[in-house]
Target: MBL fold metallo-hydrolase
Amino acid sequence: MHDILTFARGSQFLAVNGNDQICYAVQPLIQALLQDFVDTHDLGLSIQRGLQVQPEVAEALFDIDLDSPEPFSLKPQFLFPETNPLLGLFFSNTRIPSFLRREGREAIQDEAILPAIHQLLAQCGRGTQTRQQILEQLPEEVHPLLEKLIASQVLVEQPYTPVAAPLGSSGVYRLQHAALLYRSGTTGILVDPQFHSNYGREGLKADITRAMVEGQVDAILISHSHYDHWHYPTLMMFPADIPVIVPKVPRPSLMCEDMEGRLRSLGFEQVIAVDWYADPIRIGDIDVRVLPFYGEQPLVPRFDSPQHPDLRNWGNTYLLQCEEFTSWFLIDAGFEPAASMVEVAEYVRDRFAPLDHLISNFQALSYNSIGTDLSSWGVDIVANLLSNPRIFSVTNEQEGGYIATLGPAGVAELSSITQAKACLPYADSWSDLGTPGIHDRELIEATLVELQKRGAATAVIPWHIGDGYVYSKTGSPHQLLRNAIRSGR
Model:
């Protein structure tokens, strides 16, 4: 067979939209404000000084009233923009030394081209076609972009070899960060995928590529719009007719865009957004139930509401049920001043317990202890902070007893309530294929302690990136399958 064209190991994409442009514009101002507050402990004074860093930006984008309980805020037209255009794609191959790397960029002048770009990425993502076969299927308007991707060594031509054997065992497989792949006897459902993403860690010796799940995915679930869960280029590597379930967003904002509308603009044909507790959605032989996502809001007890009630990190948790398993994955859900996942767990217990597995980020996160250095956070953290500006005064405090995600204690509590037979950590980091998440060891130990306090019989499964937790017809109903997904192209 002739050489096929596929995404190279180490290739990464970044998409930038209108909301991001606003956040990039104000980030220096916000960074200056936070650093100054460490010294002054006077939010009003720090705001005044911070605004001087970018006076033109401050005047154009902010309403400022230092005598008000809300001393500064983005103007309404920026908090709730009427449109959020996709402005450009940036791409490179991070395996190439930086001094030799060719950074690529594709400016989006007219969003009408987005379905064609989607078609390009989807055809290349399969990892089974030659350059000529792909060109013959693409509109001519995106041929130049294909050549850019090749020139940047994001796409490479190489001999075809099967990337991985089909995943024959029913269960759940751990991909990078918050990505999961559920497999039943007939159906595959992918969660929060991140392939060839700018969020991935550079320098991984073995990673999971898009081609490694070819033929395994029948639908995609998205939990929420934080960028480590919501990556346009990854999604565009899948066919336009694949069903994608996303959170329902009552009012788009800087903090949470209209995810359904975005996917339709990219050319997706089957986008599903339903209310929490709606009737199950049937994908193959798997029932998908959409449940609430509470927690991970930029709220703390002292400042327990955003500037506007429509400013929310809208999200879903999902319960998947088929003949072989019942599984609930929680992503970064947890607690907020007015609600928590405990009440959802009680609903799950009454209808679906015992669970075969509960899957969650075990890491504790609090918005009053994220620190004052924004450089290690995604640009979307700026949007979150701007939804509740009073929170700037507490971002460098100790988390104390209040966290926004579950943490080990919350994971143990929900596992106990739902009578989960097993709980599994994820959504905390990128790591080499075949290795645990960076913080898995200490988080698992802490969660075991919390489970013991509650007398819960839940097992904590120490799975690694690329492992599966699968149904077994003999012996234990579910077992850990090491290295179920192996490194390929």
Observations:
- The longest strand covers residues 86-93.
- The first helix runs from residue 18 to 40.
